[in-house]
Design a protein that fits this description.
There is one protein chain. This protein has 293 residues and is mainly alpha-helical. The chain has one domain (3-280). Helix content is 77%, strand content 2%. It has helices at residues 3-27, 33-51, 53-56, 61-84, 90-97, 100-112, 118-135, 144-166, 172-194, 203-227, 233-240, 243-254, 261-278, 286-292, and strands at residues 136-138, 141-142. Strands 1-2 form a two-stranded antiparallel ribbon. Helix 4 packs across helix 9 (172-194). The longest helix is centred in the N-terminal third of the chain and has 25 residues, at 3-27. It starts with a helix and ends with a helix. 46% of the residues are buried.
């Protein structure tokens, strides 16, 4: 597969994930939050498990343990976003979720004791200003939903780092499938404890759940695992940075959500900060400088 085709596939994945915020918000009209998490990931697991049943039978202990950890993180991420969407907009959720790109290198600095790059510091500063403009609705007030979406971005950054460690010792395909099952199981457990589980009663509710399960979860994770073999991490990071743009576009077209002028400026700064953190800057060699002089 050519890198251009791989990048196009990653773009489709990013497009589907950008739409997931709208489907989650619509899904909440039919079922409760934990119930929605359970349906989304359980159906995705059943679909993937049916296709790769024979391979799943050979799962080893390490893969199983890592799958549970990743499933727990995936459950926590989804629950945070879904609860966050109850008190914030689809557009806000999409842009705040893009903070994962900032949190990943920041956590690498903390965990791996790496010296922070100048681009990371610059990108983080620009992003923090953007968050303030996007989320502060009054004198130093932030909606609870915004904080939950920021928490989701942090948790997904942890998910990415754990996935990187797990990929070195575990079967990556089984890892991706089993984490869906554990996330769905945890969603069902919490729904039984705190809610009354049920299936959507309307066609719109089922469409939202099936889109989240089949397109955003099952197909999204499988295509990502295949396409990332043929493109670079830099390309992947930059393409994923378009997720909040797609989320805002879906919210504008289908939910008639509009940001204020300050909100658009803040969203643009968040996206700029993400790109700054991911960009690779080439240094001009001293010989070229001397020749120019």
């Amino acid at each position: 597969m050519k890198q251009r085709n791989a990048d196009l596939l990653m773009m489709l994945v990013t497009l589907s994930w950008g739409s997931s915020y709208l489907f989650m918000k619509d899904g909440l009209n039919s079922v409760s939050p934990f119930n929605l998490v359970a349906l989304r990931f359980a159906l995705a697991f059943i679909l993937c498990g049916a296709v790769w049943f024979k391979r799943l039978r050979s799962t080893d202990k390490k893969t199983l343990i890592y799958s549970f950890v990743l499933g727990f993180l995936l459950f926590a991420v989804s629950a945070s976003v879904i609860f966050g969407l109850r008190s914030t907009s689809t557009s806000h959720a999409g842009f705040l979720a893009s903070l994962t790109v900032i949190f990943v290198p920041a956590l690498s600095v903390i965990v791996l004791k790496q010296k922070p790059a100048a681009k990371l510091i610059a990108g983080a500063c620009v992003t923090m200003i953007g968050i303030g403009l996007l989320t502060l609705s009054g004198p130093m007030t932030v909606k609870p939903g915004d904080l939950l979406c920021i928490l989701a971005a942090l948790l997904y950054a942890v998910h990415i780092l754990v996935t990187g460690a797990a990929a070195k010792v575990a079967d990556t395909l089984n890892l991706g499938i089993l984490q869906l099952g554990f996330a769905g199981g945890l969603g069902l457990l919490f729904s039984l404890l705190f809610e009354s589980p049920r299936v959507p009663a309307s066609m719109g509710g089922w469409i939202s759940v099936l889109m989240l399960s089949v397109v955003c979860s099952a197909a999204g994770y499988i295509i990502q695992s295949i396409a990332q073999k043929y493109t670079t991490p830099t390309h992947t990071g930059l393409i994923f940075a378009l997720e909040p743009v797609f989320a805002a576009a879906f919210a504008y077209v289908f939910a008639n959500e509009h940001l204020s002028v300050r909100g658009y400026v803040g969203a643009a700064l968040i996206l700029s900060g993400v790109f700054i953190a991911e960009m690779k800057f080439k240094r001009t060699s001293s010989k070229r400088i001397e020749c120019a002089n």
